[in-house]
Amino acid sequence: MMMMMMMMMMMMMMMMMMMMMMQRGDPLCAQHDAVSVCLAECLTDCFRIGNLMLFYTAEEIEQLTVDEDLNDIERAVYLLSVGQEVQRASVIGNLPNLVRQNPAETFRRVVPKVREVLKGAGTEIQLSAATSFLTILQDDIILIHTHTYSILKTVLLHLNHRDTVVSNAWLETLLLAINALPKETIRQEVLNSLLSKSHLSQSLHARLATCRILGKVASKFDSQIVKKELLPLVQALCQDTECEVRVCMCRQLESVARALGMEDTRMELLPELMKLTEDEENGVRLAAFDTIINLMEIMDSDDRLHIVVPLVMSVCQVSPQVDDAVVASLSFQFGKICSGLAGTLSDEQKGQLLHRFKGLCLTGLHTEAQQTNGNNEATLIRCNCCYNLPAVLVFSDATHFLTELYASFCSLCCDPEVSVRQSAAACFHQVVKLLGSNVQLVHKELLTLLQDDALEVLDALMDHLEETLQMFFSKGENLVLDNKGFPELLSTLMFAEQRVGSSLRWRLHEKLLQRYSCLARLLPGELLHQSFSPRIFLILTTNKVLPVQREAARTFCTFLRYNRKQEQRREMMERLIQDLAQGRSYWNRLRFLDICETATEIFSRKYFNKHFLIPALELVHDPVANVRYKLCQLLPRLRSSIRLPADKQLLHQLNFCVQKLLCREKDKDVVATIRKTVLELDKLDLTEPFHKRQEKDLLDQKKEKEETLLLEMEHLERQQSDEKMNSKKLADRKRRDSKTSLSASKSMSMSSSGATVSSSKEVRKAKLLRSRSLSSQPTTSKSLNPDRPQKMKANAPTGHGESSMLLSKDDCLSSTRYTMTTQSSSMPVLIRSNTTSLLDRVSTSDHRSSNVDHQNNVKEMRTKRMEHKSSILDHRTSTFEQTDHRTYTLDQRDHRISTLYQRSKTMDRNYGGKDSHSKKLSM
């Protein structure tokens, strides 16, 4: 005895040390998780043995000992015969397993012993037997037709047990077993007993059990049997003297009516229900009202108009102070009433119904009792109003939400009771869906619920946060994002996460991070990268709760996957590598391996192998054994991401990692784990079925296509932004060129006019010199003159500024020739005639060049129109072709401009060559 106590004390001390190490975050505790589990099991066994030795004597222990040579059936019979109550309860609880192993011997030898034990057994054995018999009746292994009689006889025998708890347990067993029993067995064994227990001479509990069994059995038979055999019994119980029996039978009339059909229900059951609605007991009236509302869907329009509508209107006029139960039932059934009577009510009746709903939303808020003590019934009514608000919104039309229901909805969202606000948050997503494009009307209420002091409200709102935010960021885009509501909503979401993170509700924090992953598909990548990604990464590196860390890792990987900016993705990946994979704390390195496990599910194999695989394999050199231990467990998942022959080099690196762990590892746990991992790696390609591998490959191809599409979208957005920048630059350049050309033309015209006024004599002398040089040229030079207009036509500049520049160059050359040949001039009359002819020729050539310039301008305008039309057609066919066509058009224009510029230069050279040739001839 003393030795056992000492062992227990030592085990307790070891367990306390392990718990202290786990709280401190000691790395040894993570290595020896299996040892700690084993210690816990040993400690439990020691406590169990210690309890036996402390509370039982040697004689009692000897009585509890059973011969080991007995089989299961013999041991069960022996314990049921001479065993103690604990042993008998254990045998009865194990009865379904005995039936599965040997049904014939169990029903022949064990079940009769169980019936004998149940006659005088206590509550524990009775409850254990009820559970075991239910399992046997619902089990498909045994032959139910063979052994049903013996089981049902036992169940029906104990329905009238003196203990209410025991009788209710056997009743629940029978009700649940009716679905598995055949019709003939129910008709012979169950219905015969019901006929005898429905009389007034039976106990109240027996009649209540009969009502419940009738409601359950009615669904098993057709309408003729129900009308002939069950309906008289139902009508008799509806007129029972006890109000509890009438209430119970009225609750079961719905299933009986569905079994009868619409015609028989109208003729037989509806008159009984209308009588029950006028019963003197509130509970009976309430049950009748609920049953009629539930039966609306099987009624025709006349019954709804003449039975349901007057009943509903009369209940709407009931004051809450008179009958709280009926008003509470009305608030619970309000949505079903609105949807069932939408096409039957008149406009006046609809207005009355909506007015009643608005009053129910404010029930108990303006009374002193609510402010001091709190009315549970009034709180329940307002919660029911929250539950039925979407159905009432459909009933009143969503376009009239602002005038009809907005005040009530706002009141429910700001209710003083937490349960009401929680119910409003639970139905918020349905209201948002029904509002559609008018979602901005409830923007303020969303902020109110997100900032609620009670975390239960935020928990209810998180269940459907993705649907809610999707409606706000899509359909309410033009109305919310353009004002201050969008940044306010984002800051409120950040504040909600910080408030939950600072609390002890780590499960809510985990759910919130899981819901926030939808922001990657709803928010712009730039905004997400600046606001939410740093916060998620901070949670990943600082939070101490492992489920929260893993959910933060999943959310961060989701943000990384759906980010379209390559620079931002590179920055996020570098933070993961530097702060986690190469971090100073081994805890962060363990988190990186958790991220790798999550990344295999989110990213494609190609992306994972490119960014995650190599940093994970490099942790084989980690000095902490826990990190290497985690890496060994992760190796099969890393191997499954490698596909040959494309990833042959990665496979070599993984094999090198395994070899290093096998050869150089010194930690015992890591060595044992790597040996198991090697066996798993060898069987990995052989044990996986082909269809599962094919499914994984198809899923990976889908992920890779999505990632490629994201890259293409990024490239397209970049091209569009570059195109916009280029178009702006071209527009600015054209504006500058037009301004400079106008200023240049104005300056040249002013300078030319001044030059003509100041030096008209020099111009005349230059013209005379040009005429003499032309007249003194030989015939070969004259024959070249007709070709000059053709060259100008082919290479004529389009701008007015270039032609004026050419004329100024000719005038300068002519002036220099005049200074050199003035002394050799003679024959003034001939010079005059040659001068006039030359002036005429020059004027005609200028006219031809202007015509050529005009034709070129017209051609360029036509080409521009054709290019514009072709660009429109290309835009209709493909966006990428439009981009290529625009770039090609710009290149073509640049090439044309450069060609014209070169031609103008060659023309200047030609003019200069001809002038030099004439200069030589004149000299």
From TrEMBL:
Q: Kindly give the Pfam families that the UniProt entry links to this protein.
A: HEAT, PPP2R1A-like_HEAT
Q: Domain Phosphatase PP2A regulatory subunit A/Splicing factor 3B subunit 1-like HEAT repeat, which positions?
A: 224-298
Query: Where are the bilayer-spanning segments?
Result: none
Q: Which PANTHER family match?
A: PROTEIN PHOSPHATASE 4 REGULATORY SUBUNIT 4 PPP4R4, SERINE_THREONINE-PROTEIN PHOSPHATASE 4 REGULATORY SUBUNIT 4
UniProt feature, compositional bias: Basic and acidic residues: 714-739, 905-923
Disordered: annotated segments: 714-807, 901-923
Q: Provide the Gene Ontology terms for cellular component.
A: cytosol; protein serine/threonine phosphatase complex
Instruction: Check the UniProt entry and state the signal peptide residues, or none.
Output: 1-25
User: Does the keyword section mention Lyase?
Assistant: no
Family, according to the entry, reads as follows: Belongs to the phosphatase 2A regulatory subunit A family.
InterPro entries linked to this entry: ARM-like (IPR011989), ARM-type_fold (IPR016024), HEAT (IPR000357), HEAT_type_2 (IPR021133), PP2A/SF3B1-like_HEAT (IPR054573), PPP4R4 (IPR039918)
Composition bias, Low complexity = 740-760, 771-784
Q: Which UniProt keywords apply?
A: Repeat, Signal
Mind listing the GO molecular function terms for this protein? protein phosphatase regulator activity
Q: State what protein this is by name.
A: Serine/threonine-protein phosphatase 4 regulatory subunit 4
**The HEAT repeat ranges on this chain:** 230-268, 269-303
